[in-house]
């Protein structure tokens, strides 16, 4: 089945051949990531406490966006109920620390496991749905969890909230302080990014991308699509649940309205979409970019914060519908850096 | 068919969509190294037959055996692991992956289950070379021509190292000059002992490569036999080929 007929054009010696551009060494993402983490490790001592809390929140959203990216970005299942796993992780921590008197360091992995098992169980029926059906179903699951938590006040404090004892004799684990939570959320962000990077480079990454593009074709290639989707959903939920656990301990007192707030899911999705879904770096850039823009607007345009941030997100999505990282990758490959032709390419 | 043990055996295969019987009582027995051409008018049930064999549809009745293993109604990945590969009538490349990565998926998840990414890539490059896509591994599928997209579809299937290959209109959209190399490849695969079921509308092409032709009409087998015999059958001319075809191709 050789290529038919037409003579190959003469080689153009003035430009490097397509696909022959100088390549960066294979270790550069890991090396670059390690340098970034090392830089962040010393940063907290240079920040005011308000700034430190903001950066801590950025780390939390990096972790959440990276976790959502596994199911929404790589696998193509837009989970609109991701905040359910966040809340589940948080309330698992409350129950284990308050009622079972377990250390936070036991509650944290336990929260991840509970969220993963829950995701695997609901994933079996829900992952048979596609597109907006899956999105709406997961939204329903998160709302259901919120109702459940509100209606078992004996364990969760109900609508009045639950408090984790964090000082004095009743504290099973002393509160970590601003520096402690900074490091904890930095650690979670690193773990999430590394998990996504390992998945992306490995066999599972190929399976998830294939499922994302065409499930029938993936199955025909021997990919067990049920296992691939369920694993992605469970790992994504585990990472989100761990972030929820850390957030509950950081906040000390938590309420279902805040912990199951759909805005948290929306933020995760926007961060992933703007940064570049299905990439390792995209959610990190998306989370950092939106958090920094939001903080800047809060300080300089407090009255119009939401309106301006919303407008910026709309403009960014129109200009870069595939996200910053995917745009950069396409632009380098095609040597076309025009945003206008990018808009045309995506027929907006 | 010869008396060899069939690699693919289909008995009484049936698929109903509500009130429509899309495939009805189809029987096949294909030994190794045989090519069965499947022809029939649009809507005759050809692609449904492939979907039933590959597990993309569950049969309402009947059975599908690969070797001695009954895989009736099994999920597509189990059937792929049993050695059945297929192409799709409408090509289904993984658009977010490069051409080489598309084939790498099949190498990694096929029966060989090559886990090393480097080894899988090497094998993928070998398959791409074979189908005429050598040097195009780094391209995204969107930049391939129609013919190359068909080659990619075939490369993905071959990367599974199948025993049975189901080709659903793999020549569609190809120019005459591109059809001959494709037919030569099918012939080569047959020579290597692969069992092929080929759906095609280009009658001369399918007659040239098939040991037997099966004609489907309204989901049922109208006739099956050697190409010359089938193409001269009055019922096949009436239902599918038309009298103009026989006037143009009197032999």
Automatic annotation (TrEMBL), chain A:
Pfam families according to UniProt: BPD_transp_2
InterPro entries from the UniProt entry: ABC_transp_permease, LivM-like
Spans through the membrane: 26-43, 55-74, 80-98, 105-127, 180-199, 266-292, 307-328
Region annotation Disordered: where it falls in the sequence: 1-20
Sequence ranges of Low complexity compositional bias: 1-16
Domain of life assignment: Bacteria
Membrane topology, record value: Multi-pass membrane protein
CDD domains listed in its UniProt record: TM_PBP1_LivM_like
Keywords from the named record: Cell membrane, Membrane, Transmembrane, Transmembrane helix
Predominant place of localization: membrane
Localisation per UniProt entry: Cell membrane
GO cellular component: plasma membrane
UniProt GO molecular function: branched-chain amino acid transmembrane transporter activity
Protein's recorded name: Branched-chain amino acid ABC transporter permease
Source organism per UniProt: Actinomadura physcomitrii
Taxonomic placement: Bacteria, Bacillati, Actinomycetota, Actinomycetes, Streptosporangiales
